[in-house]
Amino acid sequence: MRLHQRLAVITALVWSAVTMAVPASAEALRVAHDQRFPPFAQAENGQSTGLAVDLLRAAAKHAGIDIAFVPVPFQEIQTTLTDGRADAIFPLAITPERRQTLDFSAPLLPTGGALFVRAPEKTPTSLAAIAGKTVTTPRTGPLAAYLQKNAPDAKLIVTANYDESLAQLVSGQADVAALNFQTGAQLAARLHPGRITPPDRLFWELPFAVAVPKGKSADALRKLDAGIAAIRADGTFERINTDFLKR
């Protein structure tokens, strides 16, 4: 065998050994989130941050899954699954309606809908207490449909986002704002300090989870479920929550 032929064979064998010894990295699971959804998820200086982001990163690490976060505007969340930008959405509330088209991981964060009123008014005790009142809530999300069904005597206004709903409440255009408990409380304190009563209860419990198109990414969900169980069992979940509250 000529020298150049032997060198070619040796090169091929060496390359084969190298590629066999270094496995290709798995493709990351692309997870879309609202770029402005504090305290759960937001984009800061090109990085995804927030309580939900920290918890999902920890669960994914336990599960051996690479996560690539895709921050998008509030109104584009749902379309990321259909236009190819993302494989999953998080954090997303689990509802019966969404289960018709989406599969969910195990719940990762307890949360829900709450009623915000102008200070010094007290939090309405139930949905029955808002009958006849004007209620504002963002268009994207499950609360508008829930209120239409369960509070039919309230006058519902749907808005583009949380900022608009809070502004309507403060200006008097609305009597009540129906918002996610944690996100509404944080934005109210930042945008309208002292002018909105922090809710003292939920009117609808809605745990957050990772959502994927129905019938897809089943293996990733199984792994994430194991990771979620692991961070709850070893104290990571509690530590992340505690550390976040101290910031």
Structural features, described:
The protein has 247 residues and is of the alpha/beta class. The chain is 36% helix and 25% strand. The strands form three sheets. Strands 8, 9, 10, 11, 12 and 13 form a six-stranded mixed beta sheet that branches. A five-stranded mixed beta sheet has the order 5-1-6-14-7, covered by helices on one side. Strands 2-3-4 form a three-stranded antiparallel beta sheet. The chain is globular, with a radius of gyration of 23 Å. The protein starts with a helix and ends with a helix. The model is unreliable at 1-25 (pLDDT under 50).
Give a short synopsis of this structure.
This protein has 247 residues and is an alpha/beta fold. The chain has helices spanning 3-21, 51-63, 143-150, 162-171, 181-191, 218-233, 236-246, and strands at 29-34, 36-37, 41-44, 47-49, 67-72, 88-93, 102-104, 112-118, 134-138, 155-159, 176-180, 196-197, 204-205, 208-213.
Task: Please render the helix and strand layout as text.
Layout: H1 3-21, E1 29-34, E2 36-37, E3 41-44, E4 47-49, H2 51-63, E5 67-72, E6 88-93, E7 102-104, E8 112-118, E9 134-138, H3 143-150, E10 155-159, H4 162-171, E11 176-180, H5 181-191, E12 196-197, E13 204-205, E14 208-213, H6 218-233, H7 236-246
Parallel strand pairs: 1-5, 1-6, 9-10, 9-11
Antiparallel strand pairs: 2-3, 3-4, 6-14, 7-14, 8-11, 8-12, 8-13
Helix pairs in contact: 2-6, 2-7
Q: What top-tier CATH class of the largest domain fits best?
A: Alpha Beta
Looking at CATH, the homologous superfamily of the largest domain is Periplasmic binding protein-like II
The share of residues in helices is 25-40%
The CATH architecture of the largest domain: 3-Layer(aba) Sandwich
Count up the domains. 2
Shape: globular
Instruction: Quote the distance from N terminus to C terminus.
Output: 69 Å
Low-confidence stretches: 1-25
Question: Strand count, sense and closure of the main sheet?
Answer: 6 strands, mixed
Which radius of gyration do the C-alpha atoms yield? 23 Å
Strand content: 25-35%
Number of strands: 14
Instruction: Give the number of helices.
Output: 7
